[in-house]
Q: What sequence folds into this?
C-alpha cells in the first residue's frame, strides 16, 4: 500500500468544513459535558468492571472559573448495595481519572440492572454542586443501550465510549 500527501486547502474549501470534519471524526456523542467510560464484564471475577476514564467540557461552578469534579456510581438493583466514588480532580473542567470500579453481578442480572453515574463539584462548608448524570443499562436508549448490551454480549472485552451528561439528577 502506498500513501499520498494532499494539502488540506485542496480537500476542504473553508475552515468550517475542517472543523466539521474534525468534530465528526472525534467519536464523541455531542458537545457539552460528557464522560468517557469503559465497561467490561469480567467472567473470571464474575463482575462488571467500570473504568471512569475522563471527563470533558464540565461546567464551571467555582468563582475561579473551574470545578473540582468527582463521580459517584452505583448499580441498581445491587444485592450488595455497593457505591463507589472517584477521587476529586481539583480546578479542572477536563479531568482524567482512569479509575476502575468492580461490581459483583451475574451476566443474566446485568440485563435487568442500571449503572447510575453522577458528577459533582466538591464544595466545603456547603452542599456539593451537581454537574450532570448518566444512566447506562436496561432502561437506556440509543448509544447508551448499545454500549451496555455490547458489554453483556461480548464479555472479557473492554468497551469504551463517550456519553453526554444530562442535567437530570438520579438518586
A:
Amino acid at each position: 500500500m502506498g500513501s499520498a500527501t494532499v494539502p488540506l486547502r485542496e480537500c476542504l474549501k473553508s475552515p468550517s468544513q475542517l472543523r466539521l470534519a474534525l468534530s465528526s471524526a472525534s467519536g464523541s456523542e455531542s458537545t457539552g459535558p460528557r464522560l468517557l467510560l469503559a465497561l467490561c464484564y469480567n467472567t473470571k471475577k464474575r463482575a462488571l468492571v467500570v473504568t471512569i476514564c475522563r471527563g470533558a467540557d464540565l461546567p464551571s461552578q467555582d468563582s475561579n472559573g473551574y470545578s473540582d469534579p468527582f463521580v459517584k456510581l452505583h448499580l441498581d438493583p445491587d444485592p450488595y448495595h455497593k457505591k463507589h466514588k472517584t477521587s476529586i480532580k481539583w480546578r479542572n473542567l477536563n479531568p482524567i481519572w482512569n479509575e476502575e470500579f468492580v461490581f459483583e453481578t451475574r451476566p443474566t442480572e446485568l440485563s435487568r440492572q442500571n449503572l447510575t453515574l453522577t458528577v459533582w463539584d466538591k464544595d466545603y462548608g456547603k452542599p456539593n454542586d451537581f454537574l450532570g448524570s448518566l444512566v447506562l443499562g436496561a432502561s437506556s436508549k440509543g448509544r447508551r443501550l448499545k454500549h451496555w448490551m455490547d458489554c453483556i454480549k461480548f464479555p472479557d472485552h473492554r468497551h469504551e465510549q463517550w456519553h453526554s451528561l444530562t442535567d437530570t439528577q438520579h438518586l
